[in-house]
Amino acid sequence: MISETLRQYISFDLFPLTSAICVALSCGLIGNHLVLRRQSMMGDAISHAVLPGLVAAFLLASSRSPMVMFLGAGASALVTVGLIELVKRLGRVEPGAAMGVVFSVMFALGVLMLEQAAADHVDLDADCVLYGQLETLFFVAPTEWSQLFTVDTLKDIPTQVSTLLGLTFLAILFKLALHKELCIASFDPGLATTQGIHAGFITVLLMVMTAACAVASFEAVGSILVIAMLICPASTARLFTDRLSTQIKLSALFAILAAIIGYILASFVPEMLGMPSSLNAAGMISVVAGSMVAIAAIASPSHGLIAKSFRQRTLRKTVAIEDLIGLLYRAHETGSVQSKIASITPAMNTRDINQVIQSATRQGLITQSNDSLELTDAGHQAGAKIIRRHRLWEGYLVDQAGIRPDNVHDIAEQLEHLPTDEPDSNTQTDPHGRPVPPHSD
Amino acid sequence: MNLTLAQSLTQTHDEMPSLREIFDTITLQSGFNTNAVIVAASLLGIAGGIIGAFALLRKRSLTADALSHATLPGITSAFLIASALGLNARSLPVLLLGATISGILGVLCIHLILTYTRLREDAAIGIVLSVFFGIGVVLLSVIQSTATSSAAGLNHFIYGQTAAMLTNDAILMGAIALIATLIAILAMKEITIVCFNESFARVTGIPAGLIDGLILALIVLVTVSGLQAVGLILIVAMLIIPPAAARFWTDRVRMLIILSALIGALSGFVGSSISALLPRKPAGAVIVLCAGTIFIISMLAAPTRGVIAQLIRHAKLKLQIAIDHTLESKYQYPEHHPQTTFSLRVLLRLKGLTQSLSPSSALSQSGLARGRRVRRNHMLWEQYLVSCADIAPSHVDWSVDQVEHILDDDLITRLENEIRASGHNIDSQVQEITP
Q1: What is the residue range of A31's domain?
Q2: Touching check for A35 and chain B: CB below 8 Å?
């Protein structure tokens, strides 16, 4: 016996949610390669351009059967891809403009045809192409568990859902079977061709898969979710990793998450808030997918804004400390063991000298007495190292790069902080005649 | 099935407007409201054409697509806010203000993504497009679910609808288009410089970033002005198609802008007239299809960049090569007769290069001269490749066969000079063939 709430859930929410997850997963997988190839907008062009094919198929076959619609939309999508290529090659039009020309004309044609069809009281709606009708995919669930998996019940599953399940299967198969070819053709078409992989053919296959995603999904979720899912999960994953295989796995995860969270936000939350009806799920899923990109852009540990600014701050601090002990070392060279803070401040390119002094003191590099600073032994060694690098770089710049001696200081001032090996040289003095401190170890 | 099609066709025929009606409409004599819509659509075409030309030069065509989609959340939130405040939620200025704000927010988001993340432009555009439109769609469903107000009418902003447009709306739309056009014309010099050479612009003191922002702001203005007539999905066509079509006819930027504006105006005018005259012809779609038709004609028929012109040039070159090859081999081996098609022989005879139509016909005086010239060019180029370009002698033939036909007198003189200058003598074989 299936409880009433569960039965309701199976009837009204199971299939929309399954469809959303299917679309998200298949588009998310395919999208990785579109984003890599900088062809993200191809999904946008194709998913808009299926409209005339849909209407034509409908008018010709006068049926709304999904198979007919699928064929019409598919034909339309392939024509679009071909036309874009044609306009790009023959007309030598810039790729973005070529896409724009083709898809807008196709969409206009579709709108006009729809308008004509509407005159004959045809119930065909451009809205469904744009935002889909996930909510209409309900199915009457049986009352008993035993009846749930019988042939009779299963054949009542909306065709859109089975199409989408098929698409997801196809997309996963496509990825698994052609992973190597797809990668090599995306990264280096020339190499692919020399390896006997026809890069152009792989591109065509990818476009066909994109078209399949757009076409299979249009009725359930609409083009807007297709575009979002082709681009957002892959972009989110791209902000987390530099490895393609990890990116693909992550993007699949993000796509599924976005579908589930978005669906819950659209279907269940409004009810809890006392709104009379649920919200558009396809739109909400796109919004969630977009928010994921935003969160990743801010908080990703490898490429996020926070991590980046943290790393930058740490680096800035290190550089400031190195500058400080460099200055103190130079003062030491000229005989003054102690240096007044006030005399150092102008030479330091930092806003808060006290903080730098505190950090350096904590690291045991300097000691502070009243308003004067003095290097500790460790600080003296570190200072020698910095100044050694600085002067060796100066020598390198003059000898090897042919820069005049009075111009090298500022460049060396930056190079001395680099964590690379110091320049290979045996000179004892820098171009200005100052001694190069010996190697400390 | 064909019954419905046939029915719709005959119906359309029944409602064909009379010549009188057509004349009245295109000469702006059919009522103030229709006129206002037609004039506004033409102004929109001009604005879209000019600003689109800049967008094309700046490779910003698809950014425009994202911006137009990004206006939807603005329209819907303006509607929601206005109705919450008890204002007239359908007031066009309010809705357009909302559209402008969210369009600009969309621009900012693209800019932020490009500046602060590693994502590329295409992904940034796609993200903004889909997410903003997604927000708009969710807000639309919010409007539909709050029983107090209906969202009917907001749909017009997605697909465009001139039928319900009031005269005031048309005037507002035309005014925005006019303002955008004026700004674009005033800043034309600066924008052009930024489009062609950003670093030069910076050096001459033109704030390139600001100008870039200005172009995007103008795109938003055009989008907003066309929202009601063309709709936010198709408005991008007004920015992309006219300049892309104009580009086929000219290589000069001033001409490009003028042509693009003309094409835009023509599409706007014809499209909105057709839409006014015939039933069930949504203005936006018809305007875009007009522009599309002009694009196709331009792509096919433009004199130098057009596809037909390219094909003709290509065929001419191929023919010239075939003639040259025949003449060359006939000159080189007078006993040996190369395979030729009948049509080629006719052509050779007609040009007076051979003496008869037979495959073994000898060359005429001019044919001999031409054959000698081609042979000489061939050998000269071969020698140049060997002596000056450090190419392995066994490979020279690869490119020689293609290049021998396109050497002109000027180039031949230079070739001879270069070979001499490099300390080589012109090959005795070549010298035997006097030009």
Answers
A1: 4-303
A2: yes
Q: Does A14 touch chain B (CB under 8 A)?
A: no
* Tokens 């407007």, located at residue: B17
The CATH number of residue A147's host domain is 1.10.3470.10
Q: Which residues in chain B are closer than 8 Å to A16, comparing Cβ atoms?
A: none
Phi and psi based region of residue A399 (left: phi greater than 0; alpha: psi -120 to 50; beta: remaining): alpha
Question: With an 8 Å Cβ cutoff, are B123 and A100 in contact?
Answer: no
Partners of residue B363 on adjacent β-strands: B354
| pLDDT tens, chain B, 435 aa long | 343 444 444 444 445 677 777 777 777 777 777 888 888 889 999 999 999 999 998 888 888 899 999 999 999 999 889 888 877 777 888 889 999 999 999 999 999 999 999 899 899 999 999 999 999 988 988 887 775 556 566 777 887 777 667 788 788 888 888 888 898 889 888 888 888 888 898 898 888 888 888 889 899 988 888 888 888 888 999 999 999 999 999 999 889 999 999 999 999 999 988 888 887 788 889 999 999 999 999 999 999 889 999 999 999 988 888 888 888 888 888 877 777 888 888 888 888 888 888 877 888 888 888 888 888 888 877 777 777 666 556 556 656 666 666 677 777 777 777 777 766 666 666 666 665
Q: Are residues A73 and A182 in the same domain?
A: yes
Domain membership flag for residue A422? no
Co-location of A253 and A315 in the same domain: no
DSSP-assigned states of every residue in A422-439 = PP----SB-TTSPBPPPP
Top CATH class of B309-432 equals: mainly alpha
Chain A residue with CA closest to B247: the answer is: A93
Asked if B62 has any chain A CB less than 8 Å from its own CB, the reply is: yes
B8 → closest Cβ in A108, A116, A277: A116
- B-chain CB neighbours of A83 within 8 Å are none
Domain count, chain A: 2
Q: Residues 142-161, chain A: which have Cβ within 8 Å of B?
A: none
SS3 string of B113-162?
HHHHCCCCHHHHHHHHHHHHHHHHHHHHHHHHHCCCCCCCCCCHHHHCCC
Closest by alpha carbon to A383, among A362, A405, A360?
A: A360
In sequence order, what E strands does A99-246 have?
Answer: none
Residue B389 distance to chain A (closest CA, Å): 26
Quote the ipTM score. Answer: 0.85
Topology, domain B18-299: ABC transporter involved in vitamin B12 uptake, BtuC (1.10.3470)
Quick check: B246 contacting A, CB < 8 Å? no
Least Cα separation, residue A287 to chain B (angstroms): 5
Is the overall model pTM greater than 0.90, yes or no? no
The count of C-alpha atoms lying within 13 angstroms of the C-alpha of B307, restricted to the half-sphere facing its C-beta, is: 15
**Any A CB within 8 A of B108 CB:** no
A234 lies in the same domain as A316: no
